[in-house]
Design a protein that fits this description.
By secondary structure, this protein is α/β, with parallel strands linked by helices. The chain has 16 helices and 11 strands. A hairpin with a 5-residue loop joins strand 10 and strand 11.
């Protein structure tokens, strides 16, 4: 029997809980051709939300095609353009002749070609025969709009780990060209193409969309909200009941609070409990399951701490202790932070390593809830 606690893939339908209203709102935005950015920590439910939205749109009879690609391996602008173009073309085509026709018709006057050998050997739909210039860049970014108009359907381009374009030699050049293409192709009655720009590095995505203000008023930020604790508890309790097991709702609420309502961690934790028990789930069983969950992730947490300097560890300790005014003389002295200028450098370092993020009021929070618990209890050995 399938486990009611899914953590190894995105979820939809009955397993998609606590965000049904968000799915409706996001679906309306996409239907009207709005461009969306979604950024939240890894395993926060970004792709479950997107897939539930696409599922809802299909059920409602909306006509669209999806092109989805992961930018994690992208390190050059050329790699991005080839990947982007291949993804766009595959939304409406499936044969070499169709690929060749689309490239000839819509990428005319560029350095993009359909290379039969590259396709035969590597399945590569788009190839470059020269370094891409500005004309190549703009025409490639325009490609899904032209394909959408020709096919008379809405092309939804989902670009995962969008912040990785900053690791190329000229990501800002790509974003400026993309801004121009989006601005000049705003939807009228029927959208030809819209983007969902997804990122799991919160601070890197904030840098793009908030600090450097790329895509200002062109892309709508859609926040990932936590499910309510009571909704999570009901889901977990029902999951255990389906297997003939009973758990105290208050204990599950405690777990949800500890893991800050992160459904990936909660489902993983509950799955461990499910395998350990046959009847009534007691508090010691929950603690044993938490220990197993920690043991799985501890190597990653240790590697994170090993990568920090002594000063960075000191600032992290101040954050764990609930401090906020890190540049004040007493905090600098208490935690050995050296100077206010050093504090700024330390904050930037922890943000670049995606350990900590700061809100608009400069209040810090540790991004990963299980890491926060581990670093508090096992690294700093603070009594909880």
């Amino acid at each position: 029997m399938d486990s009611p606690f899914i953590y190894d893939r995105y979820v939809t339908g009955k397993n998609f809980i606590g965000k049904k209203e968000d799915a409706t709102i996001l679906g309306n935005l996409i239907t009207h051709g709005e461009n969306i950015t979604i950024y939240a920590p890894p395993k926060s439910g970004k792709h479950s939300l997107i897939q539930q939205v696409l599922f809802n749109l299909r059920i409602n009879g909306t006509r669209f095609s999806v092109g989805q690609t992961d930018l994690i391996p992208i390190r050059t602008v050329s790699d991005f353009l080839v990947t982007y173009g291949s993804t766009a073309i595959r939304t409406v085509a499936s044969t070499p002749d169709e690929y060749s026709r689309i490239i000839a018709n819509h990428l005319e006057g560029t350095h993009f070609i359909f290379d039969h050998i590259a396709f035969s050997d590597h399945g590569q739909v788009v190839s470059l025969n020269w370094d891409p210039d500005d004309n190549d860049l703009e025409k490639m970014l325009l490609l899904p709009f032209r394909i959408g108009k020709e096919s008379r359907q809405h092309i939804i381009m989902i670009l995962d780990e969008f912040q990785n374009l900053d690791k190329t030699e000229d990501g800002e050049r790509v974003w400026k060209a993309m801004e121009k293409v989006i601005r000049e192709n705003r939807p009228t009655d029927t959208p030809a193409c819209s983007f969902i720009l997804v990122g799991s590095q919160v601070n890197a995505m904030k840098s793009i969309f908030k600090d450097r203000r790329f895509f200002y008023r062109l892309v709508e930020h859609f926040p990932i909200r936590e499910p309510e604790s009571k909704v999570i508890a009901e889901h977990i309790v029902k999951g255990f009941l389906s297997g003939g097991k009973v758990v105290d709702r208050e204990l599950i609420l405690g777990v949800s609070s500890l893991l800050r309502n992160n459904m990936w961690y909660i489902n993983h934790f509950s799955s461990i409990c499910d395998y350990l028990t046959r009847g009534y789930i007691t508090e010691p069983m929950l603690l044993e399951s938490l220990g197993i969950l920690l043991s799985i992730h501890e190597p990653r947490f240790k590697a994170t701490m090993d990568d920090l300097t002594t000063f960075q560890v000191s600032l992290l300790r101040a954050i764990v202790d609930g401090k906020k005014k890190f540049s004040s003389a007493d905090i600098i002295k208490e935690y050995g932070l050296n100077s206010s200028a050093n504090v700024r450098r330390l904050k930037d370092a922890l943000m670049k390593k995606e350990i900590v993020t700061f809100d608009d009021d400069d209040v810090p929070s540790i991004i990963d809830p299980l890491f926060e618990y581990w670093v508090r209890k096992y690294y700093f050995k603070i009594v909880i």
